[in-house]
Write a structure and sequence with these properties.
mainly alpha
């Protein structure tokens, strides 16, 4: 029995030594076995302390009391509450500014819409007044002079002026458009006015008078 126990103890010692050798070999292989490491191992085996180790703090050092700990925690909680309150106030202020911005934006949009409406009304009024003035001048001119004035304008401007003039006056003016370019303009004016239903028998007669002139224009080129 004693022999078995001795055998077991010897085996344990051998295993311990082998494990230490294997550990040292691994440290050496990894480059972690330095002179400082060997010194530390030697000191541990001798039961000595490393001179570089710091002495534990003095047991007589002042300890933080429970009251101080509670005061510190209360201060942290108070700071957190103040920050939370400040954040809420800041968020509320942002939403108020956003609402004010929306109101201002709506007011600006309303003013802009009103301005554009008034501007359009003013433009239309000025346009109507200018049209009436031009129409009055056109009606006062002899047909030949009126035809020359219309040729200085665009087709759209001619139509605007002529739509407020009697069909007889229109017919007289169109009869004066005899040269090729003027005759072409007269045909265009007639077609546009016909589409609008503003011509009568007199204008129809004018159309028949313009057709021969228009047809003869290519031979004159």
């Amino acid at each position: 029995m004693l022999k078995i126990i001795n055998t077991i103890l010897i085996s344990l010692c051998i295993a311990t030594v082998l494990s230490e050798v294997v550990g040292i070999a691994l440290l050496w292989q990894r480059g972690q076995l330095t002179s400082q490491t060997l010194q530390d191992i030697r000191l541990v085996l001798r039961g000595e302390k490393n001179a570089d180790e710091k002495e534990p703090e003095d047991a007589d050092a002042p300890q933080i009391s429970l009251e101080d700990e509670l005061v510190a925690r209360a201060k942290v909680a108070s700071d957190f509450e103040n920050r939370h309150r400040t954040l809420n106030n800041f968020e509320k202020m942002i939403w108020e500014k956003a609402d004010q911005t929306t109101v201002v934006k709506q007011s600006v949009e309303a003013i802009r819409t009103q301005f554009l409406t008034e501007l359009e009304e003013l433009r239309k009024k000025n346009f109507d007044e200018a049209t009436e003035q031009g129409r009055g001048i056109l009606m006062a001119l002899p047909p030949e002079e009126a035809a020359r004035k219309l040729m200085q304008l665009t087709l759209e401007e001619d139509l605007i002026l002529l739509k407020g003039i009697s069909e007889k006056k229109i017919a007289d003016i169109l009869q004066e458009m005899v040269d090729p370019e003027a005759a072409k303009r007269g045909q265009e004016i007639f077609q546009k006015l016909s589409t609008g239903g503003l011509v009568d028998k007199l204008v129809q007669e004018t159309k028949s008078k313009l057709e021969p002139t228009t047809g003869a224009s290519p031979s004159g080129n």
